[in-house]
C-alpha cells in the first residue's frame, strides 16, 4: 500500500524514507520533552542515534536535519546547493532586511554589498583593525583587574560588541563604562527576541495578545535605524571616507541608504553574538582543562615575550590557542545551523530525492560529533586541529562559519579578535571557575554558556 503523502511545509523534502524521532504525535509532531527555549539541544537529543539524516515535524512543517559529515560535504557543492533562508533566519528580515546575512540569493544587493565589503575583511584590513581591537581588549582587562567574580558571557558580549562598533563603524557604545545597557543594545536584543518568539507563536494568539509587543518591536526597530542614521550622518559630516566598513560603503556609491543601514545593523548583530559565545565556550573549556590552559599560556608567553601588547603577527602565531578556539567551535558552533537548498532536482546521499528549491538544515553540533569523522566526539581535544590531523580528515566536515559564497564574511575578523582576547586573558590571569559549574547552553540567536562565571586571578 502506498504511504500517504507526508505533510510537508512548502519547500521541504520528500521525507518518507528518512527516520524521525520515536514519539511523533499526531498534529503537533516531535515535541515530546522539548522546549521552545532549546530547539537546538532538543534536536541534538532527538537526532542522536537516528544517523546522518533525520526529520522533525513541527505542526505542518517537517524539517530535514543533516547530522553527518559526508552529507554536509555533499551540501557544500555549490553547483548543486545554495544558501537557503531557514524560517529562523527569515524572521530576521524585519531587522536585517536585505543586509548580507538575510539577503536572498537573487537580490542584486547581496552581490553589490559583498563586493564592496570584502576588502574590509582582508588580512591587510585586519592589520588595520588590530590596534583598536587591542584597545578594546584593554578595557576588558581593566574590568577584570578590579577583581572578583565575572559573568563570562556578559563580558565577552561587551567586548565583541564594542569591538565591532569601534572597528567597523567608529562608534563606541561605551559599554565598559556603563552600568546599564546602551539603549541601542536593549533595542537590538528586544527586537531579536520578539522576531524569534513570533516564529513560535500562533497567529491567533499574536493577534489577540501581541499588540503591545508588536508596538515595542516597531519602536525598537525605529530606534536602531535612528542610531545608525546618526552614525552615518556624523561620518558624512566629516566628509565620509575612512578605511572601516562604513567608509567602504559610503565611498563606494554602490549601495542605497536603506541598504547601508541594513548592513550596519546586520554587522553589529552578526559581528558580535557568535564571537562572544565562541570566546565564552573556549574560556569554559580552558577552565576545565588545566593542562590545555597551561600549554596555551606557555605558547602566549613564548610568542609574545615581554611585549606589553602583541603585534598583529604575534596573534596569528598563536597556533595552539587557535586550536582551542577551533575545538570549542566544534563542540558548540555558536551559529548552530544553516540551511541549503537544491539549485535543481538532485539526489542527496544517493538516496534522498531533493527537488529544486527544497531545503535541508545542517545541524552543526551533531555534524561536528559525527563518529565517522571524530573519534571520541564528546572529548575536548584541541590537537584534533593539528595540521596533520586536519589534513587526514575529509574536506567540508567542519563548518562553524558556514559554506560557499554565503559563508561568514567575518571569519578572519572573529578569529583575530578571539585569539587576541584569549591570548591576553591567558597571559594575565589564572582562570578559576567554580568546581560545581556544569555547562548549560542558552539558546537565543546563537548559543552561549549560561551562568558561567570565572574569578580571574592575576598571575
Ligand atoms: Mn558570521 C554568515 C558564523 C563571526 C558577519 N556567519 C555566517 C554564517 C555562519 C556564521 C555559520 C553563514 C550562515 C548561513 O549560511 O545562513 N560568524 C559565525 C561564527 C562567528 C562569526 C561562528 C564567530 C565565531 N560573522 C562574524 C563576525 C562578523 C560576521 C565577526 C562581522 C564582523 N557572518 C557575518 C555576515 C554573514 C555571516 C555578514 C553573512 C554573509 C553573506 O551571506 O554574505
Labels describing this entry:
about 450 residues; alpha+beta; Cytochrome p450; about 50% helix; disordered N terminus; binds manganese protoporphyrin IX; iron; Unspecific monooxygenase; oxidoreductase activity, acting on paired donors, with incorporation or reduction of molecular oxygen, reduced flavin or flavoprotein as one donor, and incorporation of one atom of oxygen
Write up what this structure looks like:
The protein is α+β, with helices and mostly antiparallel strands and 459 residues long. The protein has a single domain, classed as Cytochrome P450 (Cytochrome p450, Orthogonal Bundle), CATH 1.10.630.10. The chain is built from 19 helices and twelve strands. α13 packs across α16. The longest helix is centred in the middle third of the chain and has 27 residues, at 211-237. The model is unreliable at 1-10 (pLDDT under 50). Bound molecules: manganese protoporphyrin IX.
